[in-house]
Amino acid sequence: MLLAITGCGDVVEGSGASSQAPTTDATDGGGGDTATTDDDGTVTSAGPGSSSGASSTGDPTGATTVTTVTTDPSTEPTVDPSADPSATTVDTTDPEATTDGLSATSDDTTTGCDNPGTWYPDADMDGFGDEQSPTVACEQPPGHIDAAGDCDDDAASAHPGAPEICDQLDNDCDTYVDEGSPDNLMCGDCKFAIWNGAPDQYYVYCSNSVPWQQARERCQSFGGDLATLKSDPENDWVGAWSPEDAWIGLTDAEVEDSWKWVDGSSLDWSDWALLEPNDNGDEDCVIQLDNNFDTWNDVSCGSSRRLLCEQPF
Fold first, then answer.
1. Environment class of residue 86 by beta-carbon count within 10 Å: exposed (0-12), middle (13-18) or buried (19+)?
2. Contact 189, 206 (CB under 8 A)
């Protein structure tokens, strides 16, 4: 027997003769509730706008058993109430994700502005900052400036463009210390001078005696090298200016009797003393003699002598 429950509580009796009973709908015209009887005798009641249903199974006693059907919330879509429905969403976890037609402005999340500046501490207040300690910020921090290049931020006398003086500092930040300059013509055991025939360089004479290789290294500390005396006028001027025998930049240490200047050039002009060079006891380095003729002599490179340098401006 099939039962249909109407909105008014009437029970409709149907024949069970057919092996496949038809589905019967009953609608309450007042409340809009609907009861539907399935093929298996289940009556489903659904109220207006309901997303879940209640089913009733026919009972010969007239009682109605109601089974509540619920929906799994995990299968339902969720909506963020704060979301803008017109917004375009891009999955930022996917590096390939793009949004057509949109442009983005990247703000600096650290400084809080689009175009932060780079600032350098200027502890000695000489107008140049320490480039080894930059700070990126929107506003200029106290004690910082936007100019880098200071080679010694603890000394106001050391910065690019400063005059080189005799103070054991690299004043002009050219990596050389106490080299010759208009403000430094005498420093320690060294003196500096300019010859009119080579106005683009200083000649340096230092009185402390050292072996030839150490003499060369000291000249290089001024930005130059041992002197290369390639003409008679130059040789005479240097000999008259320097007071003692001194190393010059000539050697045959690489190939015996093949004399070369430290700049790699071959010996085209010379001023050897009488019977020199004689290579007496492996003599591979050269000094300018302090005599009336400013002649040269080959001596042992390991002996200690004063030194003559050339230092470009």
1. exposed
2. yes
- Highest-confidence range of 47-61, 73-87, 123-137, by mean pLDDT? 123-137
| Separation CA 108–CA 101 (nearest Å) | 23
CATH 3.30.70.100 assigned to 186-312: no
Alpha helices in 222-297 (DSSP H): 232-241
Residue type, 1: M
Which residues lie below 8 Å from residue 87, measured CB to CB, with a gap of 6+? none
Q: Where in the chain is the domain with CATH 3.10.100.10?
A: 186-312
pLDDT 10s digits, 17-76: 334 444 434 344 444 444 444 554 444 444 444 444 444 444 444 444 434 444 454 544
Q: What is the largest CA-CA distance in the chain?
A: 149
Beta-strand (E) ranges in the chain?
A: 2-5, 11-14, 24-27, 34-37, 42-46, 54-57, 65-68, 117-121, 135-137, 144-145, 186-187, 190-193, 201-210, 225-226, 246-251, 260-261, 285-288, 296-299, 305-312
Type of residue at 119: W
pTM: 0.62
